[in-house]
């Protein structure tokens, strides 16, 4: 079949790679425009653009995907199928209707749970023990189309969103090709979603980074894991911003009775323990002062970055 691929970030690369290696022809790759990155803020090719160009595949990077000129370019390719993997924009009905067999999406959750922009982060932040990948048909309503295939994946207790994203990218690529082949052969089976079971995963914002120490330690631990690699969970101490990179739930809380949430209970050796809500405590394992490298808490404590009795969040 002639396939047009829509995808932008690293998550989309394994699926694109699998399609390129298949018997189907990727006629074009549609990516979001290149954006400045790094300290020099120089334009860098998106990961999918870099892979496509390495294989001589045309790349389209429209600023507006509703423009008639762009839609005409897609029509001219006469695609049999559109494949979407983390493209990053909602597709208009006029575009969805172009491929002969419609468009399918590699979605990083077990639908109908976590429809929306940030399914991986929301699953980790919720403390879920399982997630997965769904191959679904793209419909007008966001992530509401019928499903073709689903594969579940466990979420280890200390895994970050970045860890899970890497795993699901590979799983999605393996799940995608059998569906594409089934559509080509006219034997694909579709299962409607149950809208009553739908939950939503809204886009992550920078405002979600600051830690609320009044929450239980487990909730904070999941937030630290879920907000990596962006925007990162953070707190303040004496006006300094500190990013918390790795943590664990301290159970039971160190003796001494309930402490004000955010109070440093212990800062000795490898132990940096902070009081949280509900009488719980969080053990910080790695920390990053703003503008500096990530370090083990032993080094942070030895450098007098924190002491017992200090109050995070001030």
Description:
The structure is a single chain. By secondary structure, the chain is an alpha/beta fold. The chain has two domains: 196 residues, Formyl transferase, N-terminal domain (Rossmann fold, 3-Layer(aba) Sandwich), CATH 3.40.50.170; 97 residues, Roll (Methionyl-tRNA Fmet Formyltransferase, Chain A, domain 2), CATH 3.10.25.10. Helix content is 25%, strand content 26%. The chain has eight helices and 15 strands. The strands form three sheets. Strands 5-2-1-6-7-8-9 form a seven-stranded mixed β-sheet. Strands 10, 11, 12, 13, 14 and 15 form a six-stranded antiparallel β-sheet that branches. The protein has a two-stranded antiparallel sheet with strand order 3-4. The longest helix is centred in the middle third of the chain and has 25 residues. It is elongated. The relative contact order is 0.11.
Give the helix tally: 8
In helices, the fraction of residues equals 10-25%
Could you give me the name of the CATH homologous superfamily of the largest domain?
Formyl transferase, N-terminal domain
CATH topology of the largest domain: Rossmann fold
Structural class, by secondary structure, is: alpha/beta
Chain oligomer state: single chain
Give the C-level CATH assignment of the largest domain: Alpha Beta
The string of secondary-structure elements, in order, is EHEEEHEHEHEHEEHHEEEEEEH
The name of the CATH architecture of the largest domain is 3-Layer(aba) Sandwich
Compute the average pLDDT: 95
- Radius of gyration, Cα only, in angstroms? 23 Å
Strand order of the largest sheet: 5-2-1-6-7-8-9
User: What is the number of E strands?
Assistant: 15
Alpha-carbon distance between the two ends: 59 Å
Into how many domains do the coordinates divide?
2
Strand content: 25-35%
Outline: elongated
